[in-house]
Specification:
Layout (H helix, E strand, L loop, with lengths): L1 H9 L27 H12 L8 H8 L7 H24 L3 H21 L9 H17 L6 E7 L2 E8 L8 E7 L6 H14 L3 E5 L5 H5 L10 H11 L5 E11 L2 H9 L7 E5 L7 H4 L4 H9 L2 H13 L2 H11 L7 H8 L15 E6 L8 H8 L4 E6 L14 H16 L1
Parallel strand pairs: 3-4, 3-5, 5-6, 6-7, 7-8
Antiparallel strand pairs: 1-2, 2-4
Helix pairs in contact: 1-13, 1-14, 2-5, 4-5, 4-6, 5-6, 7-17, 9-10
């Protein structure tokens, strides 16, 4: 029972199947490479890919990975968190000497390592230290932001009775009007990951850039206690309203780029917000609920259909209680929904689809489709087929080193194609 229940959780966007091999310290056999484990391997690729945009040094990342035992979340959290602490010390030393470039780079290293640690913390014996790990990351990103030239501006964008944090990265301090790229995060990303998944590439090509923390993301989740919502136009419209007040923003050249689950939120918003000139879904996501239900046993589907909430929650709770990976995934995936009930989370996920709105998008759309997409397989093509606007589909392959979700190990190649397309569309 618990293994099948786990598999239902494990297909949520950010985790896969059971670890194939676990070797712990003290075993006579040497530890298996983290790359043999789908969850550890994906985080390893994220950490290594970050090196392209100065999110770490490959040698240091490989040294961290050598200390990991697949399936041992304690070792993973400890190794990445220790590397973050070490990088923070280097950043503070450089900043104290007014060495801004060195400080910025070390802060970015620290942010990368702390964000990797945050992916594992829910699988440790003390998941309550997650908020502290988040604060370590936030300190690092804020440190890096103030060391950019010009410094990255922190904005408060009105959002109902609350506000959303956004970070405005400008090419220079000239005040010149330029195209704006709004970067829409995914389910569990952070600002530094968005800097590497479009921000650095935008600045290098002369675009100003806005990194948005939407509901359920980054400090919107950890500090403001705002949670996911499917009607993302209610998020993007106030962001566009706010950015049109900045003289650096060309109102006719605003692009919206979404990564991971942002591949759903971006097209959803574009179906209603028509002031945006171009959209990118990396990858295309048509139905967020599909991975929630892909391996759900029929009897649990019956419980959902019949409204048997208490039974559904009891069965799921029993299943994850016996498997640390299942517990980690359930905590990690349910937190941004703001729900403690499995039943409520699974039911809520069914609202996150594009079936009724994809045809209402007017602006040109780019949809990426990486080979071996592990969380939303086949959905990029599904979204592309549903679009009625000018559209482009780009496939990324294993031969390019750009397979898997969001092409995390090939950010340079990904930006090459995304921004080349954007240059043509916005011209």
């Amino acid at each position: 029972m618990h293994r099948r229940t786990f598999l239902a959780l494990g297909t949520l966007p950010a985790g896969c199947a059971m670890a194939q091999t676990t070797a712990r310290s003290g075993d006579s056999n040497p530890a298996v490479s983290p790359f043999a484990d789908p969850d550890f391997g994906f985080t390893a690729q994220i950490a290594l890919g970050a090196s392209y945009y100065r999110g770490g040094n490959p040698g240091k990342t490989l040294a961290i990975l050598s200390r990991l035992n697949p399936g041992d979340f304690e070792s993973a959290y400890g190794a990445f968190h220790a590397a973050g602490v070490e990088a923070q010390a280097l950043a503070r030393e450089a900043e104290g000497k007014r060495l801004a470039v060195s400080a910025r780079e070390a802060w970015l290293w620290a942010g990368n390592y702390f964000s990797a640690a945050l992916r594992f913390v829910d699988g440790t014996s003390d998941p309550d230290c997650a908020p502290g790990c988040w604060r370590d990351y936030a300190t690092s990103w804020t440190g890096a932001a103030r060391c950019f030239e010009p410094p990255v501006g922190r904005l408060e964008i009105p959002y109902g009775e609350s506000a959303l944090t956004a970070w405005f990265l400008r090419v220079d301090a000239s005040g010149r009007r330029r195209p704006l790229v709004i970067l829409n995060n995914g389910a569990d990303g952070v600002e530094s990951s968005m800097y590497r998944a479009g921000g650095a590439g935008a600045l290098a090509r002369g675009y100003n850039c806005l990194i948005l923390n939407g509901p359920g993301q980054a400090d919107s989740l950890w500090e403001r206690k705002l949670h996911f919502r499917p009607d993302w136009e209610k998020v993007i419209t106030p962001v566009v309203d706010a950015m049109l007040h900045h003289k650096e923003v060309d109102p006719k050249r605003i692009a919206l780029i979404g990564v991971s689950m942002g591949g759903f939120w971006v097209p959803r918003a574009l179906a209603f917000e028509h002031r945006i000139a171009a959209g990118v879904a990396d990858p295309g996501v048509f139905d967020v609920s599909a991975p929630f239900f892909r391996t759900l046993p029929p009897f649990l589907n019956d419980m959902l259909r019949d409204g048997r909430k208490d039974q559904f929650d009891q069965v799921m709770k029993m299943g994850v209680a016996q498997d640390v990976r299942a517990r980690m995934m359930s905590r990690m995936r349910m937190r941004p929904f703001g729900m403690s009930s499995y039943y409520d989370t699974w039911r809520a996920s069914k609202e996150y689809h594009l079936r009724d709105v994809a045809g209402d998008i007017r602006c040109p759309m780019l949809v990426t489709d990486p080979e071996a997409e592990q969380f939303f397989p086949g959905q990029a093509q599904q979204l592309y087929d549903a679009l009625r606007c000018p559209k482009t589909l780009i496939r990324f392959t294993r031969v390019q080193g750009a397979e898997q979700h969001c092409e995390v190990a090939a950010p340079g190649l990904r930006d090459y194609y995304v921004y080349n397309w954007l240059a043509e569309v916005l011209a």
